[in-house]
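The protein record filed here.
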Amino acid sequence: MPSWTVAGEFYARRNDWQAFAKVREAPTAEAAREWALSVIGGCHHVPRRLIRIRSVEPTST
């Protein structure tokens, strides 16, 4: 299964955007994107509208 790097930022607190990059094995880029939204939203209690996905790229091995 391919690995994907999902990069972006989320709204952490008052006018502060926190950058992130997550690596995940997933069948498609869309599945990796959904996983990242779920993890960031769940761990940091951030609604999806406050998460910006900048890129979803295959990870080279």
About this structure: The chain is about 25% helix and 50% strand. Residues 29-44 form the longest helix (16 residues). Residues 3-58 form a domain with the Ubiquitin-like (UB roll) fold (CATH 3.10.20.10).
